Amino acid sequence: MLLLGVSLAMGGPLGKPLELKQQTPIADLEKKPADFVGKTVQVRGKVTEVCEKMGCWMNLADPATNARVRIKVKDGEIVFPKEAVGKMAVAEGKFVKIELTREQAIERAKHEAEENNKPFDPSSITGPVTIYQIQGTGAVIE
User: Fold this and answer.
1) How far is CA 72 from CA 16, 124, 127, in A?
2) pLDDT per residue of the chain (142 residues) written in tens, 0 to 9
3) d(CA 41, CA 14)
4) DSSP-assigned letters across all residues of 2-41
5) Is the Cβ–Cβ distance between 85 and 91 less than 8 Å?
6) Integer Cα distance of 40 and 11 in angstroms
7) Residues 6 or more apart from 68 whose CB is under 8 A from it?
8) Helix (H) / strand (E) containing 93
9) Do residues 44 and 27 touch, judged by C-beta distance below 8 A?
10) How many separate domains does the chain show?
């Protein structure tokens, strides 16, 4: 399955086919996230980062505004290829709000730092954290 996911990645669909006809600007999600929670959205942006270990998430940035959003999937459901960094991508899924206690936020940040071989300082998390991201159902790397 991993080989199939990588071979289809560049120019081919990942996950379910994209269904929406209209894209939501990433800047709109960033400015008024509460307006989009629970809704299916489609976004387009430049891939700035991909999960180094499992390919279970990728970050997209709008080249015009630098607004950013994360597309997250269950491990193995879709494998975002590391080679996608620097390329444009279109992704679709449900926009969600995740509220974490300080302890949960520390665990999440620690896990992410370990996945990407980056240093992590727990004191950088000072309180509860609210995260908005897209639960990805499909994507196309252009």
Assistant:
1) 14, 23, 23
2) 333 333 334 556 899 999 999 999 999 999 999 999 999 999 999 999 998 888 899 999 999 999 999 999 988 889 999 999 999 999 999 999 999 999 999 998 898 888 778 898 989 999 999 999 999 999 999 9
3) 16
4) HHHHHHHHBTSEEESPP--SSPPPHHHHHH-GGGTTTSEE
5) no
6) 22
7) 26, 30, 45, 48, 59, 60, 61, 62
8) strand 88-100
9) no
10) 1
CB atoms within 10 A of CB 105: 21
Residue 98: CATH number of its domain:
2.40.50.140
The sign of the torsion formed by the CA atoms of 1, 83, 90, 113 equals positive
Q: Can you tell me the distance from the alpha carbon of 18 to that of 83, in angstroms, rounded to the nearest whole number?
A: 21
Determine the structural domain holding residue 98 and report its residue range. Answer: 2-141
pTM: 0.84
Q: Could you identify the residue written with the tokens 């936020």?
A: 105
* Distance, CA of 64 to CA of 84 (rounded, Å): 19
Handedness of CA 120, 27, 57, 127 (dihedral sign): positive
